[in-house]
Amino acid sequence: MSLGPYTSFITTSYAVVAVVVLLLIVWIAIDYRTQRARLRELEASGVTRRSGRGASELG
Amino acid sequence: MTLIDLANPTRFLSLTARVLPWLMAATAILLAGGLYLSALAPDDYQQGATVKIMFIHVPNAWLSMFVWGVMSIAALGTLVWRHPLADVAAKAAAPIGAAFTFLALVTGSLWGRPMWGTYWEWDARLTSVLVLFLMYLGLIALWRAVDDPSRAARAAAVLTLVGAINIPIIKFSVDWWNTLHQGASVLRMGGPTMDRAFLIPLLVMAVAFSLLFITLHLAAMRNEILRRRVRSLQMMQASQRAA
């Protein structure tokens, strides 16, 4: 596959999209872990939901 | 399961736990297929190999408007139906929509330099998409500026519905004004004008990016529900300590 004289524009476009999409995925994954860890800490300190279910349970 | 069942955040969390792995797999497969088809696509007789930039630029541009549409429906859900997950959906979508809009601007710019001879032109399409990007940033700032999620939700919903006026302006800017940007070549009366060699990779990439949005949006909504649980437990903890 030859991209001719436009190689730098095409590869930069795909690289920027890859980086931004990866950053979104990593950001959402880290946020998920952070919220789960906070919920577990709160449960460990004795705070519970009114429903009595574990707050860090997914459901 | 009906929409009303999903109004229960706990039920929504259990649904996302089941659905997300399948969505992730489908997104990865379609993205890989779309990239493969994009690599195989021939050069355009006018654009040369830069037509490959279209396969990522167009899906991001479509999604930049689609996500605002999703947020507008969620805004109605907040203001009219008071659906418990409406503002969760709106808040979770904003950063993802901002990212897609940013990518549409950057990839369009990188295509414009070799084809138009400039990275940027203050024409109607480019300027209205830049305004959309700034509105996304404004919404994100608004969500972060107000501590109480329900108060922030109402203000953000009003701003989202006012901002929705920009979506038809973006879509029809190429018809209403004389712009450098080309007119619609896929979503138009009379069908697409694009050759199948370019249309198929473009549509596969569009479906792949749409699935990517659904996957990221559900995951971000799940995070937002957990964040609100943390907030309410922290408030309970603070009130127990004060008592």
Please provide a written account of the structure.
The complex is a heterodimer of chains A (59) and B (243). Chain A is mostly helical and 59 residues long. Chain A has a domain at 4-43. Chain A is 64% helix and 0% strand. Chain A is rod-shaped, with a radius of gyration of 21 Å. Chain B is mainly α. In chain B, helix 2 packs antiparallel against helix 3 (86-116), helix 3 (86-116) packs antiparallel against helix 4 and helix 3 packs across helix 5. Chain B is globular. Chain B has one domain (9-183, 192-242). The longest helix of chain B has 47 residues, at 196-242. The mean pLDDT of chain B is 90. Helices cover 78% and strands 0% of the residues of chain B. The interface between A and B is large, with 38 and 44 residues.
Topology of helices and strands:
The complex is a heterodimer of chains A (59) and B (243).
Chain A: H1 7-44
Chain B: H1 9-40, H2 51-81, H3 86-116, H4 124-145, H5 149-163, H6 166-176, H7 196-242
Number of domains of chain B: 1
Low-confidence stretches of chain A: none
Low-confidence stretches of chain B: none
Q: How would you characterize the largest beta sheet of chain B?
A: none
SS elements, strand count of chain A: 0
* Structural class by helix and strand composition of chain A: mainly alpha
Overall mean pLDDT of chain A stands at 86
Specify the number of helices of chain B: 7
Largest contact between chains: A-B, 38 and 44 residues
Mean pLDDT of chain B: 90
How much helicity do the residues of chain B have?
over 70%
User: Any idea what the shape of chain B is?
Assistant: globular
The percent of residues in helical segments of chain A reads 55-70%
**What would you call the quaternary organization?**
heterodimer
Strand content of chain A: under 5%
How large, in whole angstroms, is the Cα Rg of chain B?
A: 20 Å
Summarize the main sheet of chain A: none
